[in-house]
Design a protein that fits this description.
about 290 residues, mainly alpha, about 60% helix, oxidoreductase, Trp/Indoleamine_2_3_dOase-like, L-tryptophan 2,3-dioxygenase activity, heme, heme binding
């Protein structure tokens, strides 16, 4: 019987006899993940090709993959809330929060791109811009920051328009949570339960007493109390991402306009004033007052 030392003799690990090495006709790691397509989807457009454009492409492609997973989780969370399964819905929210952590940390990689380096290929990007990310807009819609004018950005791409329209017309995560809380006996005002979900969610002072009831009696409403804090985590994380985005853009292009025509940093700054779950923050002023 060989020893562990024998297995690594000469600084080389011996392959175990049970490892499958004949992959002919079998599903493989690469085929399952579609790696031929995924790893050939990076197409720098700068001429001559600039070394750092690959980083720029991969940064945004990986973000889009995580956004796809976030939408998958947020869709499921809303379906679960609608079927009164709060526990499983919060598991989905917990996963979204971990994804947000990864997405925020990714900005530190792009921040290694200096203004001088970016300037050498920025002009080749044309009008392409993160503003045009349909999945990012869908996540915003799912959380409550709906804007009907955004639909027109995707009018020439039927699949993207269909995706965003579906989110535009669907109740938000907060809508489903408040409906669930109402079914649990929390006095959610009818104006909120019956609101037009195509509208951006706006603060409702009449909801604050109901949220306060949850916070001031956590023993009775522990799962709802925990859910409220999970939603606050979700919004905090989203704002951290927005802020990190803003600071990375400022670090890389200063106060230049964005490639998509926005004012750049100024436009991103305004996003920090948006909120998803306003009453969950307002109630903090009320508690103990």
């Amino acid at each position: 019987m060989g020893t562990e030392a024998d297995d690594t003799a000469g600084n080389e690990r011996r392959l175990e006899d049970t490892i499958v090495t004949d992959l002919s006709g079998r599903m493989t790691y690469g085929s399952y993940l579609g790696l031929d397509q995924l790893l050939s989807a990076q197409h720098p457009v700068s001429v001559p090709e600039h070394h750092d454009e690959m980083l720029f492409i991969i940064q945004h492609q990986t973000t889009e993959l995580w956004l796809k997973q976030m939408l998958h989780e947020l869709s499921s969370a809303r379906t679960l809330l609608a079927s009164d399964d709060l526990r499983e819905a919060l598991k989905r929210v917990a996963r979204v929060k971990r994804i947000q952590d990864v997405m925020t940390q990714q900005w530190s990689v792009l921040a290694t791109l200096t203004p001088t380096e970016y300037a050498q290929f920025r002009g080749a990007l044309g009008n392409s811009s993160g503003f045009q990310s349909v999945q990012y807009r869908a996540v915003e819609f799912a959380l409550g920051n709906k804007n009907e004018r955004m639909l027109s950005v995707f009018r020439d791409h039927p699949a993207n328009l269909a995706l965003l329209t579906a989110e535009f017309e669907r109740p938000t995560l907060y809508d489903e949570f408040l409906r669930y809380a109402s079914r649990r006996g929390i006095p959610i005002p009818a104006e909120i339960l019956e609101r037009d979900v195509r509208e951006p969610y706006r603060p409702h002072p009449s909801l604050v007493p109901a949220i306060r009831e949850i916070y001031e009696d956590p023993r009775t409403h522990w799962d709802l109390y925990e859910a409220c804090e999970d939603l606050v985590d979700l919004e905090d994380n989203f704002q951290f991402w927005r802020f990190r985005h803003l600071k990375t853009v400022a670090r890389t292009i200063g106060m230049k306009p964005g490639t998509g025509g926005s004012s750049g940093v100024g436009f991103l700054q305004k996003a920090l004033e948006l909120t998803f779950f306003p009453e969950l923050y307002t109630v903090r002023t009320e508690i103990g007052a």
